[in-house]
Specification:
The protein has 3 domains: 25-29 and 466-603, 2-Layer Sandwich (Aldehyde Oxidoreductase, domain 4); 46-138 and 194-272, Aldehyde oxidase/xanthine dehydrogenase, a/b hammerhead (Aldehyde Oxidoreductase, domain 3, Alpha-Beta Complex), CATH 3.90.1170; 287-460 and 610-777, Aldehyde Oxidoreductase, domain 4, CATH 3.30.365.10. 29% of the residues lie in helices and 24% in strands. It has an 8-stranded mixed β-sheet with strand order 3-5-1-12-9-10-11-20. A 5-stranded mixed β-sheet has the order 7-15-14-13-8, with helices on both faces. It is globular. GO terms for molecular function: 2 iron, 2 sulfur cluster binding; iron ion binding; molybdenum ion binding; oxidoreductase activity.
Length: 779
């Protein structure tokens, strides 16, 4: 076999890779047979934990009386931060600003102060409510306005992206405008909430089952709080019932609490918070306040942009630094800014510390950019799509390819994607028909928008762009696969299994997918940043390459043929003129003492980033897409319907089109929820009031577009050497939902005959739509 086959991830294209395979657990999901952590048979002597939560937003703790808690029926142990054997901290970035259990100061309503371990979950939860805590209240603020008004400190050093001369070019622009946009946060609302089970072992050992996207971080944190080395901690994850970024760091506290109690009591411990407690005590998508100024000409071409992205970060830094950084990385959306200045403002608030959520700041940055485009369009009386197309990044050599962070956009296909969708969705004809409809209808108004997506793929923390995989082939030809990625419903496991099956040219059912565990693949990165398939697929491919090289060398020597005469065919191997069934071939290799196991490794090439300088190549490539959405609003109530959405999305050469289509559809609906119905609300005491399904409204199946046409750009192929020339699909399609907000905006603007930008904030709840309609009546 030609050695290039081993080196080129695209070379082997027959077999299951690039084909539509069902999710490996789909049948288990719908029949209820998929095992989640709460389904694992409980160990003998299992105890249950519950959190004791603060009822103040910001206060000193003067005294804590836990005597009634400890005396409550079924309670075995009650512990506070003083009982933590190691360091009472679960911060993910080494900032030491996130105590596992608050000791002298609480900084948000719902912050854990103590933990209760009891014989039953109900007993633990009931006991936790009996604590008597005396506080001295301190000033608090729970939103961006309050943080700005009180001169709130920043949770991390802000970032600035600067290119060109915006200071001099802005005043010289033929036209200028300023504005402000509020962008709401979002609750992850997993089907499976946070949960952890810790089982004590010999000496300092402990095994933790955690619903986490980052097993290695759980391993590190548990070692940190127990003051034991990482080699004593084993973390296992088979699957999660949803992650979306919220299980990148937020599972730390539950795993740490369970591990402390397990080692103290010598019994297995489970923490599974109630939905209300989960929503109150864990982080969410960041709210943003965007202040922008843009200079442009009479055609609508942008000359300069100056914008500040202020974010509600919560009481600690968590992932707010990289989240607000990525917001700036995507504050250009798909547009070239000749002169630009972008500044982040990660503000401290007395709320739960916000964290990763699908898109990781990118959606907020992109939404601000689309507002700027919309402002220009309304100021000039033009179709926003024309302004978008006028300002798209150009092709190499055009002088319009440099991002605000000084990375060249070399793989730009956004114009082709948008042009194709514009034609297939019949955008122009439908927009004209909608304008005519709005002229003739007083109360029901329609809107349509076509918006682009350009999303950078890679962790902006360069070190995270690495992955490992462990592959075994057993004597019967069956294959065991383990890698550092975690499965949260997105189809990562089946995609990596397809890569492996394709490498050996065997049926997919010959590959056994096993739970992610730190005992097999060490030092894993979080399954995040849309990079799960890119990283782990290539690591598995590397392991397969190593084994195949050994098998080829073995066969060449045994049968005295050239390596080029050894070819892996479906479920068999051709050696010269003979063909051998794959299991028989493997059996012979075993008896020849060929090593049939390999640890694969991959690190993303080409990327580098200097945050202080605001320069570098943080992204390996970009994923593109476009969505066209049509809506109808009732101007008397603000209620609306999503009538139709057409999507064309770029996933390169798809590893699994069925999985990728599902990802695009799901991401769009989740993004639609963020921009329409999902509203987070804190009262004047700093209490989150939208902490349950009764008050927090995610989209229903009936809220999906009535007509929903989704296609993958089958002609696309990644120009970089990713696995199978595919592209990431987790986060990029989330931002396709911006077309919904823009379509609602057009419908609202029709009330004033499109003379002014409605400046519709997100989420565009019916109340906000109605208020915007009333504003437009006064234009």
């Amino acid at each position: 076999m030609d050695k290039s086959t081993f080196e080129d991830p695209k070379a082997i294209i027959s077999g299951p890779m690039h084909g539509s395979q069902r999710h490996d657990s789909a049948h288990k999901h719908v029949t209820g047979t998929a095992d989640y952590i709460d389904d694992i048979p409980e160990p003998a002597g299992l105890l249950h934990g519950a959190l004791g939560l603060s009822d103040r937003a910001h206060a000193e703790i003067l005294s804590i009386d836990l005597s009634e808690v400890a005396a409550s029926p079924g309670v075995v142990w009650v512990f506070t931060g003083k009982d933590v054997p190691g360091v009472n901290d679960t911060s993910s970035n080494g900032s030491h600003d996130e105590p596992l259990l608050a000791e002298s100061l609480v900084q948000f309503h719902g912050q854990p102060i103590f933990a209760v371990i009891a014989e039953t979950r109900d007993a633990a939860r009931r006991a936790a409510r009996l604590a008597k805590v005396d506080y001295r209240d301190l000033p608090h603020w729970s939103d961006i306005d309050g943080a700005l008004a009180n001169g709130s400190p920043l949770v991390i050093t802000p970032m600035t992206l600067h290119r060109g001369e915006p200071e001099t070019e802005m005043p010289n622009a033929p036209k200028r405008l300023k504005g402000q946009m509020r962008i709401g946060g979002q609750e992850h609302f997993y089907l499976e909430g946070h949960i952890a089970v810790a089982i004590p072992g010999e000496d300092d050992e402990v095994t933790v089952w955690s619903s986490t996207q980052h097993p290695s971080e759980i391993q590190h944190i548990v070692g940190h709080v127990l003051d034991i080395p990482s080699n004593a901690v084993t973390v296992n994850v088979r699957r999660m019932g949803g992650g979306f970024g919220g299980k990148e760091t937020q599972g730390n506290q539950f795993a740490a609490l369970a591990a402390i109690a397990a080692k103290k009591l010598g019994r297995a411990i489970k923490f599974r918070p109630d939905r209300d407690e989960d929503m109150s005590a864990t982080g969410k998508r960041h709210d943003f306040l965007v202040d922008y100024e843009v200079g442009f000409d009479t055609e609508g071409r942008i000359h300069a942009v100056d914008a500040t992205y202020a974010a509600r970060c919560g009481f600690s830094s968590d992932l707010s630094g990289p989240v607000t950084d990525r917001a700036l990385f995507h504050a250009d959306s798909s547009y070239f800014y000749p002169h630009v200045n972008l500044v982040s403002k990660p503000l401290k608030t007395h709320t739960v510390s916000n964290t990763a959520f699908r898109g990781f700041g990118g959606p907020q940055g992109m939404l601000g950019a689309e507002r700027v485009i919309e402002e220009i369009a309304y100021a000039l009386g033009k179709d926003p799509l024309d302004i978008r197309k006028l300002n798209f990044y150009g092709q190499p050599g055009s002088g319009r390819t440099l991002t605000p962070y000084h990375q060249e956009v070399e793989d730009n296909i956004i114009a082709r994607v948008v042009d194709e969708l514009e034609e297939t969705a019949e955008y122009r004809a439908r927009r004209n028909a909608i304008i005519a409809f709005n002229r003739d209808n007083r109360y029901i108004r329609k809107g349509i928008a076509l918006t682009p997506v350009k999303f950078g793929i890679s962790f902006t923390m360069t070190a995270f762009n690495q992955a490992g995989a462990l592959v075994h082939i057993y004597q019967d030809g069956s294959i065991h696969l383990n890698h550092g990625g975690t499965e949260m419903g997105q189809g990562l496991y089946i995609k990596v299994a397809q890569v492996l099956a394709d490498s050996f040219q065997v049926d997919i059912d010959r590959v056994k997918i096993t739970a992610t565990t730190t005992a097999k693949v060490p030092n894993t990165s979080a399954t995040a940043a849309s990079s799960g398939s890119d990283l782990n697929g290539m690591a598995a491919y590397d392991a397969a390459r190593q084994i195949k090289e050994r098998l080829v060398a073995f066969a060449a020597e045994k049968w005295d043929v050239a390596p080029s005469e050894i070819v892996f065919l479906p479920n068999r191997v051709r050696v010269g003129e003979s063909e051998i069934p794959f299991p028989d071939f493997i059996k012979q290799a075993y008896f020849a003492r060929v090593q049939l196991s390999a640890a694969g490794f991959y690190k993303t090439p080409k990327i580098h980033w200097d945050r202080k300088a605001g320069r570098g190549t943080p992204f390996y490539y970009f994923a593109y897409g476009a969505a066209c959405t049509e809506v109808s609003i009732d101007t008397l109530t603000g209620e609306y319907l999503i009538d139709r959405t057409d999507i064309l999305h770029d996933v390169g050469r798809s590893l699994n089109p069925a999985i990728d289509l599902g990802q695009v559809e799901g991401a769009f609906v989740q993004g639609m929820g963020w921009l329409t119905t999902e509203e987070l609300w804190w009262d004047d005491k700093g209490r989150l009031r939208t902490h349950a399904p009764s008050t927090y409204k995610i989209p229903l199946a009936s809220d999906r577009p009535k007509i929903f046409n989704v296609r993958l750009a089958e002609w696309s192929e990644n120009t970089e050497a990713t696995i199978g020339r595919s592209k990431a699909v987790g986060e990029p399609p989330f931002m396709l939902a911006i077309s919904v907000l823009e379509a609602l905006s057009m419908a609202v603007a029709s009330v004033a005959d499109y003379k002014a930008c409605p400046r519709l904030d997100a989420p565009a709840t019916p109340e906000r739509v109605l208020m915007a309609v009333e504003r437009m009546k006064r234009v």
